[in-house]
Specification:
The chain is mainly β and 213 residues long. Helix content is 5%, strand content 62%. The longest helix is centred in the N-terminal third of the chain and has 11 residues, at 3-13.
Length: 213
């Protein structure tokens, strides 16, 4: 498994979403992450409400071994602030197998200013990230990737109702599919719209999977 393949694999899922809206305040999520059934790390989200705004601290750390060789490592930290359904600021740092990246984003005067190692640019209006667990997210058409600083056009469709294993129990869920020009992500929600699971299959057939703890 080569390094370029692994970098692409991580970029598929580390959309590194932020929760939007105070409905999710003072909660936490912890996912075990698997690559082809091999556990490679964890991805955690800690959410709190401060002065009527939603603050989210996100951390991810992955290590991939291939034939007992440490083939790939990834560390990511991200802190974002939301006002209702709109992102107000974001600051992230990423070490992608030795390559360093950052995103700094700030909303002011109806304009979102985004700075990355590749340069700076601005977009107008309310902006969201890949906030998978927020039901409002399912109607999104453009989203900010807080790992890269890119704005991605997306389409999201409901696939149907399915039963999957969640915390060792067969659970009724709703299955959705998110598509961009680069990747496809499958998402599962409970009957009351709680995000439960995520899968993405690469072109080579490997599966990256998030399992909630």
């Amino acid at each position: 498994m080569n390094t370029l393949y692994l970098k692409h694999l991580v970029s598929i899922v580390l959309f590194l979403a932020l929760i939007s809206g105070n409905a999710f305040a003072n909660q936490s999520w912890k996912f075990k992450v698997y690559l082809d059934e091999q556990e490679i790390g964890e991805h955690t989200f800690n959410v709190s409400s401060i002065n009527n705004k939603t603050h989210v601290a996100i951390n991810a750390e992955f290590d991939v071994y291939f034939l007992f060789i440490h083939a790939y490592s990834y560390q990511h930290s991200n802190y974002e602030v939301w006002d209702g359904q709109c992102l107000q600021s974001a600051r992230s740092n990423t070490n992608d197998n030795g390559d360093e990246f950052y995103v700094q984003a700030q909303y002011a005067s109806e304009t979102f200013n985004i700075k990355t190692p590749s340069g700076q640019y601005s977009v107008e209006g309310c902006l969201k990230t890949f906030a998978y667990w927020d039901p409002e997210f399912l109607s999104s058409q453009r989203l900010l990737n807080t790992q890269t600083g890119e704005i991605k056009d997306v389409s999201i469709e409901k696939i149907g109702e399915e039963h999957i294993m969640v915390r060792g129990k067969l659970t009724a869920t709703k299955h959705y599919r998110l598509t961009t020009d680069e990747f496809v992500i499958d998402l599962w929600y409970s009957k009351n719209n709680k995000w439960l699971a995520l899968n993405s299959t690469t072109k080579s057939g490997s599966v990256l999977e998030y399992r909630i703890q």
